[in-house]
Amino acid sequence: MISQYLLMFGAAFGAATLLPFYSEILLVAQLREGLHPGWLWFAATTGNTLGAGINWWMGMKLSQYSDRRWFPARKADLIRAQNWFKRYGKWTLLMSWMPIGGDALTVVGGIMRIPATPFFILVAIGKGIRYALVIAGVNAL
Q1: Where are the domains of the chain?
Q2: Phi-psi region of 89 (alpha: psi -120 to 50; beta: other; left: phi over 0)
Q3: Helix H or strand E segment including 7
Q4: What distance in Å separates the CA atoms of residue 22 and residue 20, rounded to the nearest whole number?
Q5: If you ran DSSP here, which 8-state letter would residue 136 be given?
Q6: Which of 127, 119, 128 is nearest to 102 (CA)?
Q7: What is the pTM of this model?
Q8: For 89, which DSSP code?
Q9: How far is CA 7 from the centre of its chain?
Q10: 24-68 per-position pLDDT tens digit
């Protein structure tokens, strides 16, 4: 049983990085299997938040290479995210849950040297709300 929650954690972790994972599909499937929604929410939110931390770290450590082909975020996404940061500051990280551009925001959080504590708090809030809404939507059906 615990392996199902670890699977959710891993899928959410992968989905937060710049890899093409979609944790919501697994979340819905596991909810339909009858797994506990609270534990699934916790596993998904924790995994997704820690996965976003990888992006933040890459932004901090690898930002000097953002013009390279292998850099994990497209230049256009980084520019868009940096403009959001210039306008709204660290609060932009609350939008890191977005399917398009959210991962780039976490990379830019690292590039902009947002400290770890506010980064993880804001990202966890945004991602936690997203997973709560998915769970609520499935439970409403």
Answers
A1: 2-140
A2: left
A3: helix 2-16
A4: 7
A5: H
A6: 127
A7: 0.87
A8: G
A9: 16
A10: 999 999 999 999 999 999 999 999 999 999 999 988 987 777 777
